[in-house]
Amino acid sequence: MKIIVTSIFVQDQDKALAFYTNTLGFVKKQDVPAGEFRWITLVSPDDQDGTELLLEPNDHPAAKEYQTKLVADGIPVTMFGVDDIHNEYKRLLDNGVKFTMEPTKMGDVTIAIFDDTCGNLIQIIQK
Prior knowledge:
The chain is α/β, with parallel strands linked by helices. 26% of the residues lie in helices and 41% in strands. It has 3 helices and 8 strands, in the order βαβββαβαβββ.
């Protein structure tokens, strides 16, 4: 068994697609109609056959509450690995990304947290 798709709730699928592709650099893998919304998945440009990230609409009240409470408590919804967190931090800052935590060493890893503009906090990590 392996993880093939994981999802995050987003407030606006088009806005999320633009942010995750244009700003973060992920590649759109699927974008198909699914009722009133779309099934939009992204992959890492370095592993286009790897795990897909689904941009799931937060239309359900529980999804909105989940997002709101995680952000209020400063909890990231997911984590992305990077090779050089300081270069990635600078690149994202230069692209207008707002960080809630700058790169911080924690044991053997360094992490930073940013706002994805779609209702989530995202953590990046360098191992």
